[in-house]
Amino acid sequence: MTDAAEQQSDVLVVFGITGDLAHKMTLPSLYRLEAANRLDCPIIGVAREDRSAEDLRRTLREAVHAVEQQVDAEALERLAARLDYLHGDFADPALYQSLAERLRDAGRPLFYLEIPPSLFADVVGHLADAGLTRDARVLVEKPFGHDAASARELDRRLHSLLREQQILRIDHFLGKQPVLDLAYLRFANTLLAPVWSREHIESVQITLAEDFGVEDRGSFYDAVGALRDVVQNHLLQVLALVTMEAPRGADADALWDAKVEVLRAVADADPAHAVRAQYEGYQQVPGVGDGSGTETYVALRLEIRNERWQGVPILIRAGKALATTVTEVRLVYRHPETRAPLDVPAHAAANQLILTIDPDPAMRLRLLSKAADGTGSRDVHLELPFAAELGKPPAPYERLLHDALTGDRALFSREDAVEETWRILQPLIEKPPAVVPYQRGSWGPADADALLPTGQTWHNQDDSGDDGRSSDGDTAHGGGGGA
Ligand SMILES: NC(=O)C1=CN([C@@H]2O[C@H](COP(=O)(O)OP(=O)(O)OC[C@H]3O[C@@H](n4cnc5c(N)ncnc54)[C@H](OP(=O)(O)O)[C@@H]3O)[C@@H](O)[C@H]2O)C=CC1
Ligand SMILES: O=C1O[C@H](COP(=O)(O)O)[C@@H](O)[C@H](O)[C@H]1O
Predict the structure, then answer these.
(1) Which residues span the domain enclosing 43?
(2) What does the pLDDT read at residue 437?
(3) What is the uppermost EC class here (predicted)?
(4) Is 211 in the pocket of ligand 2 (CB under 6 A)?
């Protein structure tokens, strides 16, 4: 491949166009790009089901109307007109011959693999055999591998067919605006940078909670589980951005270098400091194996062995069917030593910096103030809702699909970062802790409380409290306590 790597793709081929991700994210994102006049190529969807291009266009209209409040009908029809469909089994070489015929006039295709991860390398092999990869880019969904060895093997197989410049490893969290802005927030604000270390911070807590279950993704999810689904990729990427040192340059590689450096300082996860759990009722989800031991919740305590973070518990948890839907980073600050002379209650809440990534991106500072009547103290919150202050950013897949089509690689994962994340989690994959149950609508199992040092708690966003209005949103884990 020549400089085509940096050039605009002239056709997009979506493998897995009938799947869940395509319906929820890809089709609506392509519509938004079309409506913003940022799309300029034909699109071919490929999947197994024998259906017509017109069926796919119908699915497109449904998918867009399901998520957009106001639809630009003209843009939607323009997009529909770009859309074509090809069916066949991904294992069948004839499919790639048919595809090659359709791509006769294309010079720089973008192949987007949103398919079962076990098929990534085989599909690229077939594309190469059909002579389709010379000037192509390949956009690969997550998870990239299912453990450290398979990630390396997948990389080896892809590199036997493609050059690194042709491989785009997508992690849609890297396209979320609050995640993108983390480095800027940290290093452009002299107010924040000096208090971002073990000297001031008691714990870092990263939570991805979802109030919905696995629903219709049983067969995919049961083979993956929470650790591989969202921790190895999304949350460890967030962790790297929260804890890295300042990048040494403004380019994308400098940022990746900084992230890889801190990931290398993360000690291997210890199974004794991890909890795996499964929500009650999970085993009845269609596609889930009888007696499945897959975790729908995971919590772990990690350790970063460097000067900035030594001794600070790094607490990560992710789960389905929890009390609410929120993805956030909390820096929980140490209690001030000057409390006694100020008459601050010993149990007053610690300061926190809360970065909400979803659903309503915002930064909040939780501070302690003297009560107006002078009789005690109360929590107060300073809130910066990003959308209201800064405008609505593009959705992650909209941004990343555009970057992939135009050859901008900055927001796609680097292999060394991917391999470090698997290295960190490998002990949990080799010796997974036993799965314990938790109730739907709770904050997960009580066992997760034991991951914290004595005197510390998980800080949950809950409906009544931690929304910036009332005094305390801290709640202990549900321990099976109901919704
Ligand atoms: N769903 C989500 O929220 C997210 C998913 N992802 C990633 O996206 C990828 C796809 O996930 P998802 O959409 O949920 O998966 P689905 O199972 O819903 O979709 C898989 C797609 O691949 C097609 N397919 C599977 N096997 C074959 C085959 N042998 N031959 C032809 N077509 C085949 C299916 O076609 P058919 O239906 O006709 O069989 C379908 O279009 C995964 O890597 C996942 O990790 C990433 C982020 C979020
Ligand atoms: O990759 C995935 O991410 C979603 C969570 O992402 P969000 O942007 O919707 O918050 C998760 O629900 C899904 O299981 C996982 O595959």
Answers:
(1) 3-141
(2) 98
(3) oxidoreductase
(4) no
Residue 481 lies in a domain: no
* pLDDT 10s digits, 202-247: 999 999 999 999 988 998 899 999 999 999 999 999 999 999 999 9
Mean pLDDT, the chain, as a whole number?
91
Q: Is 171 annotated as a binding residue?
A: no
Based on the domain organization, do 420 and 275 belong to the same domain? yes
Cβ of residue 230 lying under 6 Å from some atom of ligand 2? yes
Total count of domains within the chain: 2
Cα distance between residue 411 and residue 362, in whole Å: 21
* 89 lies in the same domain as 184: no
Expressed in angstroms and rounded, the spacing between residue 74 Cα and the centre of ligand 2 is: 30
- Here the CATH number for the domain that contains residue 434 is 3.30.360.10
Residue ending a domain, among 141, 165, 183, is: 141
Which pLDDT belongs to residue 344?
66
Distance from Cα 21 to the centre of ligand 1, integer Å: 7
**Among this protein's residues, is 234 annotated catalytic?**
yes
In a domain, 408, yes or no: no
Whether complex ipTM tops 0.90: yes
Q: How much is the pTM?
A: 0.92
In a domain, 475, yes or no: no
Residue 228 is classified by DSSP as I
Q: In percent, how much of the chain has pLDDT > 90?
A: 83
Residue spans of alpha helices (H) in 83-147: 93-102, 120-129
Predicted pLDDT of residue 1: 44
Tokens representing 145 are 């591998």
How far does CA 432 lie from the centroid of its chain? Answer: 22
Question: Does the annotation flag 210 for ligand binding?
Answer: yes
401: three-class secondary structure by DSSP: helix
Instruction: Name every residue whose Cβ is closer than 8 Å to that of residue 9 and which is 6 or more positions away in sequence.
Output: 41, 108, 109, 110, 137, 404, 405, 406, 407
Do 187 and 54 sit in the same domain of this protein? no
CA distance 438 to 88: 41
Answer yes or no: do 73 and 198 share one domain. Answer: no
Q: Mind listing the pLDDT tens digit for each residue in 294-335?
A: 999 999 999 999 999 999 999 999 999 999 999 999 999 998
